[in-house]
Specification:
Length: 198
């Protein structure tokens, strides 16, 4: 929270939720072998790293990662694995163990990255060839929660998809100056109304 407050001028609630998760991911590899100082360093770095990686993934790479999973799990999993090679009290670089343990940790990171890249490339190619990787434009507008699960991600008791959309958008933008009336939404979504059953 402090890092986002200093960096952006205000705290970020989403990052306040992601930072503890990132800390848990970061400490997992070395939880049995780090002392209090090493654990504190791992925690400080994870709190900053998650913010920076989420920003890069979202704003620079334009990858859709709405919950910050890449920053929490990938980046901090890598950091935590490397940190064990640095701060391990028995064999870490900063505790007189030399480069051997750090080298093993780096080899582990590279091996997992290569394995995951190969396996997931195969898996995604199979998915692409069979059921496809993308939802249709109509499904994206209606929402995948409706088209895949027949449920709504935000429950309002609304009877139609259009009134459900109005409720969900209103809850995201509750300011009274923003009008999300049904006629406005109907006009906005008119080109898709036949295809989506709105």
């Amino acid at each position: 929270m402090l890092f986002t407050w200093i960096k952006n001028g205000k705290p970020d609630v989403g990052m306040c939720l992601n930072a503890p998760l990132a800390g848990l991911v970061g400490i997992t590899a070395g939880c049995a072998s780090l002392d209090a100082l090493g654990s504190a360093v791992v925690g400080l770095v994870t709190g900053i790293l998650v913010v920076l990686i989420v920003e890069v993934v979202d704003t620079r790479l334009h990858i859709d990662d709405p919950v910050g999973a890449v920053g929490v799990h990938c980046a901090n999993g890598i950091w935590g694995t490397i940190a064990d090679g640095l701060f391990n009290t028995g064999s870490g670089l900063f505790y007189g163990g030399g480069f051997a343990h750090l080298g093993v940790q780096l080899l582990g990171v590279v091996s997992i990255a290569l394995y995951t890249s190969v396996v997931m490339t195969i898996v995604f190619q199979v998915i692409k060839a069979t059921v496809g990787l993308r939802a249709s434009a109509e499904e994206e507008i209606m929402g995948l929660d409706i088209t895949l699960t027949s449920g709504y991600s935000c429950q309002s008791g609304c009877s139609s998809p259009l009134s459900q959309l109005q409720f969900c958008l209103s809850s995201l933008c509750p300011h009274p100056s923003v009008s999300l009336s049904l006629p406005f939404l109907h006009h906005l979504l008119a080109p898709l109304s036949g295809a989506c059953g709105l």
